[in-house]
Amino acid sequence: MAIDGSSRIADLDHDAIRARAEVLPEAPARTMMAADRGIRRRTGNPMPDTIATGSPLSAVASAVDHDLPEPTSYRGRFLIPLNVPGDAWLRFHGISYWLDPVPVGDVGTGSLSLISEDGLELSCEVYDGTGRQINLFDQAPDRRNPGAKSLLMTLRETLPGDPPLDVPHFGRTLVEGTSLTLRVNYAGSGNVKDVVLRIEFGEQVALAMDRRRLCVRAALQPVTSTALRAADEARPQPRTPLIYLHGYEDPDTGAETIGGRLPPIALTRERITQAWQNARTSGFFDPAVFPNVAAGQDQAARAGVLQAVGDLDEAGVAERLLAGDRLVVYREATGTFTYRFVPAPVHCAPGLVLVEYYRLTSFPARYGAGRTVKTFSLLPGERTAIRISTYKRSSESLQKTSSILDATSNETEAEFARTINSEQSNQANASQSFEYRAEIEAQGQANWGWGSASARASAGVSGSTGSAREEFTKNLTNAVSQNTARASARREVQIDTSIDVKLEQGEESAVERTLENINVSRTLNFVFRQMNQEYVTLLHLVDVRVAFFNGHAESRDEVPLSELDRLLRDCLDPDHLDAVRTEVLAQLATITDHTGQIRDDLVEIVPADGDRLAHARVRPGITSSYTGPDGRTHTVPGVIVTAGEQVLRTDGVTVDAFLGEGDALDAYSTGLQQQAVRAKEAANQGAEIDNEARQAEAEQRRLAVRIVADNDRERAELYQRLFVRQQIVNQIDHAAVTALSDGDVAGRPDVLG
């Protein structure tokens, strides 16, 4: 904030600071003392302690309820993966595929290998881009996969007089289009639907598959979705093992791409450009190309997504996707959309995740004078003009000086989230947290990190999630400190003693004031200090949920603790279910609060009641309290895991004035000043006597009016005796005349003499 001779001058006097106290009722009464007494000229705690009895601000302070502070609050979640043993997962027969990079066979032909690692004898029908079924022929065994069923397909053929097939684009094409559709099943299946696999090549199949082998494999895979068990049990009897599309496997790196996403062999620049142009036109993002952009069903959500990605161009998007990144669009805590590029997941490994929901709440505490921003002096009789301008003079400066402690805005939320993510030591974990995130329809939750996978469920290691929480609280505390320091450092105040100041472009609220030193012998010194606001920041855990997640956003299944049993049944082998449930609940019984005490009361077990089974839940109404440095106790929901204090500069300015110690007058001039003071005192005394006489005379007349109005003769006689009228003496004939009422003077020789 800048005081360049033209700021809110109201901040320079006591009346303005009283007004400031009225519009900030959450500030404790003690915070107003600096404005009432002036800035202290001693070192020590800049926060004032009490309001003196009889202070001009005591009446204002007594009218304010300081037990109702107005906090700011941010919501976020922290994810902690649990290491579940590999043999604990349910397993299903998954169909994977890949394109072998080693050329085989003759020109104009392609191969199909059906590989079975789980005892199922695969069968497959292949269709080209026009829907025509392709004839398959038995051929020599697949040397790379000796047990596979190897089939041959003819892609092109020549007619008499045609160039040889090894010349590209020559020969009659037998397989049309740029894609193949495979319908995979197995011999003897009962009530098993075909796995339909559509493979896009990005070019003509006749060229893409020329002397190439397409491999399709069936193998038992750990569960990749909690929907598989329900789909398996929903089939009618008799039924044989369920098969599902597991996805593409890269033959070189082993990276997996789940079935709904385009594999690298099909993710071409042309395909990306086409999908991007369609998305910008219709608002629909093809999930095969943009799996992390779910635009939602309502028009408002689609418009928000399009606005968020409005500054992206198709060439840049294509480059990032071809480099292995994925575009993620998500809602922030404020409800607005934003985007981010994250590395694509490389494996499809199932996992359980503890999803802990937190709130970061900031309460205003003490308020007092901070650093000195300006001092200047006026010589005897000197006059100057000042201008005070604050950091709120433009929208740009407001954005740079906003803080999570006293503001809730999109810019503040985004900056805070970036700071937290930069604090993560493992950036791969940070990418996973964005892959997990998929809010579109509802208001989003800020992702505050992905913990290290150090908690091993069903292994008797209780409390191993504590280290992840400790790292999280450290990262978030550092992020709060950085955010506060950044905002506070930019809250500058400038005070210029000249009004000849060039104004910045934009709106600015400024007031000019003229200061004059009316002293004739001593300098008048001014000290300007910027006011500081202290905040108590509390990070408290308010809810815990459990999720299944395999590294791809499509697999996420997050449930409250009351549905934990259902989630575990959908993904775990029954022999491991009880052990994993016990361990998950044990992890939640070792949460420590900000004092280091274990809080095992966050989660409770609700006993069975009728048809309702026993289940776990977060205890309703659980709260925690923290007493700040000002002695005020703050109560928040959940468990406080860390607490601290932050001091933030404000746009308030307080000023103190004091006289210089030196006397600039000689003895003669001092005497003149003393005589002038005596003359003023005498004049004031005379004026005071005259004023008292006039007041007495007015009171006497009011008394006479009341007596006449009451028609009280006795009081009238007493009045005449007490206030004797002064006689008028005729100095010519020395006759004394006393004024009487009409009719009483004439014919009375005793009066006239």
Features:
alpha+beta, 4 domains, 753 residues, disordered N terminus, 7-stranded mixed β-sheet, 30 strands, 27% helix, single chain, 17 helices, disordered C terminus, 6-stranded mixed β-sheet
Structure description:
The chain is of the alpha+beta class and 753 residues long. Helix content is 27%, strand content 29%. The protein has a 7-stranded mixed β-sheet, with no helix packed on it. Strands 2, 17, 19, 22, 23 and 28 form a 6-stranded mixed β-sheet that branches. Helix 6 packs across helix 8, helix 10 crosses helix 12 (466-489) and helix 13 crosses helix 14. The protein is elongated and about 150 Å long.
Number of domains: 4
**Termini distance?**
89 Å
Give the percentage of residues in beta strands: 25-35%
Instruction: Report the total helices.
Output: 17
pLDDT averaged over residues: 77
Structural class: alpha+beta
Low-confidence stretches: 1-53, 393-399, 439-444, 453-463, 498-508, 739-753
Q: Report strand order across the widest sheet.
A: 6-7-4-12-3-13-14
Q: Work out the helicity level.
A: 25-40%
Which geometry do the CA atoms define?
elongated
**What's the count of strands?**
30
Oligomer: single chain
> Radius of gyration, rounded?
44 Å
How can the largest sheet be summarized?
Answer: 7 strands, mixed
